[in-house]
Amino acid sequence: MTYANVTKSKVSYFNGNHRNYMTVAGYTKRCGVPTNFMVQLEGSNRWYRVMNYCNSNSGTLFVKTKDNPFLVVNSWDTGYDK
Length: 82
Prior knowledge:
Elements (H helix, E strand, L loop, with lengths): L1 E2 L2 E6 L21 E9 L5 E8 L4 E5 L7 E2 L10
Parallel strand pairs: 1-6
Antiparallel strand pairs: 2-3, 3-4, 4-5, 5-6
């Protein structure tokens, strides 16, 4: 498991339908559910949407990059606690 080196974060509301990313049982599909957070990674100018993958009661925040489809993001790096 590789953790992302986040340099910047911002709130950008996801306006899509979250149901497209959920199973009938209420869990997330393997692609994850988009969150309202976007992050910029070290060495990149691109903003990445933070996704949430939940296979039980706890979720994992991650971003998909060209080199790594599951780069884990710490919740405090999103600015959620601010």
